[in-house]
């Protein structure tokens, strides 16, 4: 069974989510403060972490910061409805996605499955064993690793999903809606800035082209394009 770590100080909610997840084929463990969440997340026992923003002892944002210093385990943040600040900060620190609270267990499970589907490749296609190159960028889809001009680049699972989509269409514009569906596993919602935040993070992690431009160009009103040269 897929191991899920729930980090939420609402004991009743965590218990309810554990029960629902077990019926959906997951095995969930719950802890109720940020420090315990970091310790468990870094244990290597979990396929994915569900992390609430509001936690005692260590906030969810600080917990995520500590997790990302040592691990790329997928993290789904639970944020207060309408709280764009925590949401954007979480994404900038490397959260794979977020769900605003209150949320239904069904929505949570759908998001978990979307992240896991893209972070845990199943059968490896022969073509995925070959590197995917676009200028100084090289991706190895089978092992989900990236290099820029021969230098390893540490990417979260969602960042890798997005850059892989762009790399497979290098030289062509990928619309935001297509990029969201293929990279995030969900339809692009109105006013949702998470895709833009992930792309901004990718730009910071990848190097610049010889002419000083970012390799990911914004095509206003349409989407993004990875420069092929």
How do you describe this structure in short?
By secondary structure, the chain is α/β, with parallel strands linked by helices.
Give the class-level CATH name of the largest domain: Alpha Beta
Low-confidence stretches: 122-127
> Biggest sheet: strands side by side, in what order?
2-1-3-4-5
Which bin fits the share of residues in helices? 25-40%
Shape assignment:
globular
* Total domain units: 2
The first-to-last residue Cα distance is 44 Å
Counted by DSSP, the helix tally is 8
- CATH architecture title of the largest domain: 3-Layer(aba) Sandwich
Radius of gyration: 18 Å
Task: Give the integer mean of the pLDDT values.
Answer: 90
Structural class: alpha/beta
Q: Biggest sheet, open or closed, and with what strands and sense?
A: 5 strands, parallel
């Amino acid at each position: 069974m897929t191991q899920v770590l729930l980090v939420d100080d609402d004991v009743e909610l965590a218990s309810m989510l554990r029960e629902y997840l077990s019926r959906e084929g997951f095995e969930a463990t719950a802890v109720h403060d940020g420090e315990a969440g970091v310790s468990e997340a870094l244990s290597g026992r979990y396929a994915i972490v569900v992390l609430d923003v509001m936690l005692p002892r260590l906030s969810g944002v600080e917990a995520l910061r500590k997790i990302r210093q040592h691990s790329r385990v997928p993290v789904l943040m639970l944020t207060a409805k309408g709280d764009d600040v925590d949401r954007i900060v979480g994404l900038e620190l490397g959260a794979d996605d977020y769900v605003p609270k209150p949320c239904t267990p069904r929505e949570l499970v759908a998001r978990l499955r979307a992240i896991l589907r893209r972070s845990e490749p199943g059968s490896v296609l022969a073509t995925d064993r070959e590197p995917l190159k676009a200028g100084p960028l090289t991706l190895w889809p089978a092992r989900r690793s990236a290099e820029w001009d021969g230098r390893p680049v540490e990417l979260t699972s969602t960042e890798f999903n997005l850059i892989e989509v762009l790399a497979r269409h290098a030289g062509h514009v990928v619309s935001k809606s297509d990029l969201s569906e293929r990279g995030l596993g969900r339809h692009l919602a109105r006013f949702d800035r998470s895709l833009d935040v992930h792309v901004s993070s990718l730009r910071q992690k990848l190097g610049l082209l010889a002419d000083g431009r970012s390799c990911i160009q914004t095509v206003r009103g349409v989407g993004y394009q990875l420069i092929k040269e």
